[in-house]
Amino acid sequence: MHRYRSHTCGALSTAQVGEIVRLSGWCHRIRDHGGVLFIDLRDHYGLTQVVVDPDSAAFKDAEKVRAEWVIRIDGKVRLRPEGTENPDLATGAVEVYATELEVLGPSAELPLPVFGDVEYPEETRLRYRFLDLRREKLHRNIMTRGAIIDAMRARMKGQGFFEFQTPILTASSPEGARDFLVPSRLHPGKFYALPQAPQQYKQLIMMSGFDRYFQIAPCFRDEDPRADRLPGEFYQLDLEMSFVEQEDIFAAVEPVITGVFEQFAEGKPVTQKWPRIPYAESLRKYGTDKPDLRNPLVMQNVSDHFRGSGFKVFARMLEVEKNQVWAIPAPGGGSRAFCDRMNSWAQGEGQPGLGYIMWREGGEGAGPLANNIGPERTEAIRAQLGLKAGDAAFFVAGDPDKFVKFAGLARTRVGEELNLVDKDRFELAWIVDFPFYEYSEEEKKIDFSHNPFSMPQGGLDALNTQDPLAIKAFQYDIACNGYEIASGGIRNHRPEAMVKAFEIAGYDAQTVEERFGGMYRAFQYGAPPHGGMAAGVDRIVMLLCGVTNLREISLFPMNQQAIDLLMGAPAEAAPKQLRELHIRPAPQAK
C-alpha cells in the first residue's frame, strides 16, 4: 500500500465497503459522541468521516489530535448506520473505522478557523493566507478560477488563436497608470519596467507575420487598490488579430466570453445577442460606461419641461446652453419615506440634495418640484418617463460632464433600493465609439482618453482636420453587470498617423521614436491592419464566483495598502543589493 494513501478523501463510496484503505489529510472537525470519536478528514478532493472507538488501536492517538492536524489513518470502509447518511457529501454513504493513526503534521493553535465561513479581519486572513485557502468556499473559488482559465484557453484555441508568451522585463509605456520600475545592475542608472499590458509586443507579433495571438498575461500597474482591482498585478486574456476590422474582433471574442459565462453560470441566464451601446449613449442613459443592464432604469433628458418653469433653480441653470436636467425614474418609489431616504443619501454623497416628484392616485404630482412647475409640466414628465401612480422620479441638473457620475450612482441606488435589479443573470454588452482624446484638467492639455495605439475613426484625415475632442476611436469595452471586463481597439498601424496622434497629445516625433522605437520601426516595414483586446481574468472569475472582492478569487493577494502580509513585501533591500544596483535610497521627508 502507498505510504500515505490508497484513496483520496473524496473517493470512497459503497463500492469500497469492506476494503482496508489508507487516507491522509487534515482534521477538519472532531466530534466526541459519548467516547466515540468522529473525525471529518479533509484533503483537496473531499471529506470522509472517520470513526474511532475505544476498542480501536488508534483510539489513544486519536484522542490527542486537534483541528487541522495532518494525519494518516488505516481502516475499514463500512456503510454509515441507517439514518446518518449525508446526501450532500460525495462520501456521505460510508465511513472508515480507523485501526491505525499516524500524526504527520501537528498544528499549533489556529489564528483563524478553517471550519465554517466565519468573517475574520483582512489582516489576519492575509497574514495566514495558507489557512484561509483551506476554507471550503475560497478553495472552491481558486479551483473555479483555474477551470475558467482552462476554458478560456480551449475556446481561444478553438477560434484559431495560438498562445505566445511576451517579456516581463520591458520598457515603460503610457498605458494610463504608473509603472513598476526594475533597476538594471548591468546598466547603471537605467531601468526596466514591468509591463502594464503586452500592448506593444502583441502588436509586434502581428508585424512579425503571426495571425492570431493570445496569452493569459500577467500585468503590473502601480495603482491604488480597490475591491475590483488588486494592487500591483492582475491577469488578462490578451489577444490580437491581423487583417481585421472591429466586427471581426466582436465575432471572434463574443462566443468565447459568452461560452465561458454559460459554462460557469450555474444555470443563470447569459446575454446571447450583445447590444452595442455608444459611449455617449451609455453615459446619458446609465451615467457610466460600464452599465449594469440588469437594472432596467434608463435616465432621460427632461430639460424642456423645466426650461422657463416656476422652479427657478433649474430654470436658471438651463439658461446656460450646455446645462441639462436628467430624470431617474423610480417605479414603485412614490413614497415620502423613500424619497427622503434618497435625498439623505445624496447629501451623504456631497450633493445639496436630490429633487423628486411623486405621483399620487389619479396621476397628480406631489413634492416641491411638482408644486413649482405646475400640473401640466408634471404630467408631461410622467408621460415621457412612462410612470404611473405610486411611482417617482429624481432629478439632477447642471453640466452633464460634471454630474454624470453622480447620476449613475443615483440610478444604481434607486434600482437596488427598489429591488429592481435581477441579481441572477449576466448581462453583457459592447460599449463602442469612445472619444479618442480627452482634456486633462490636471495637466491642462489634451491627452489620450483610452488607448494611445488605437485607430481614430477617420484615420489621418480626422487627425488633421477635426477638433481632437470630437474624434471618436475604434475602441470598445465589454461591460457585464456594472463592471468593465474587457477593453480593446483597432490599432493605428500607419506611422504617419501614429506620429500625428501622439503630436496632438503633446509628444513630438523624436519622443515617439525614442519611447516606441520598436513599434515605430516595425510600422515602416509593412504593417498589417490589426486589432485586439484584453479581458480581465480576475473580474470575470469574480463575477462567476458571485463575490464582490478580488481577494476572494486570488491565491496570495496584497492588502489595501499594497503590502504582502504573508511574505513581508515590500521590504528593505540589503546594502549589498543596493550597491550592485547603483541605488542609494533618498531620505524620507519627516
From TrEMBL:
In which residues is L-aspartate bound?
Answer: 175, 221, 450, 491
Superkingdom of source: Bacteria
The record's Gene Ontology cellular component field reads: cytoplasm
Localisation per UniProt entry:
Cytoplasm
Question: One GO biological process from the UniProt record?
Answer: aspartyl-tRNA aminoacylation
Q: Where is this region: Aspartate?
A: 199-202
Q: Which residues form the Aminoacyl-transfer RNA synthetases class-II family profile domain?
A: 148-557
> What residues bind ATP, as annotated?
221-223, 484, 536-539
So where does this one cross the membrane?
none
A GO molecular function assigned to this protein is: aspartate-tRNA ligase activity
Swiss-Prot/TrEMBL site (Important for tRNA non-discrimination) positions: 33, 83
Which reaction does this enzyme catalyse, per its entry?
tRNA(Asx) + L-aspartate + ATP = L-aspartyl-tRNA(Asx) + AMP + diphosphate
Q: Which PANTHER family does the annotation name?
A: ASPARTATE--TRNA LIGASE, MITOCHONDRIAL (PTHR22594:SF5), ASPARTYL/LYSYL-TRNA SYNTHETASE (PTHR22594)
The entry's function note states: Aspartyl-tRNA synthetase with relaxed tRNA specificity since it is able to aspartylate not only its cognate tRNA(Asp) but also tRNA(Asn). Reaction proceeds in two steps: L-aspartate is first activated by ATP to form Asp-AMP and then transferred to the acceptor end of tRNA(Asp/Asn).
Q: Under what name is this protein listed? A: Aspartate--tRNA(Asp/Asn) ligase
- Taxonomic source organism: Xanthobacter autotrophicus
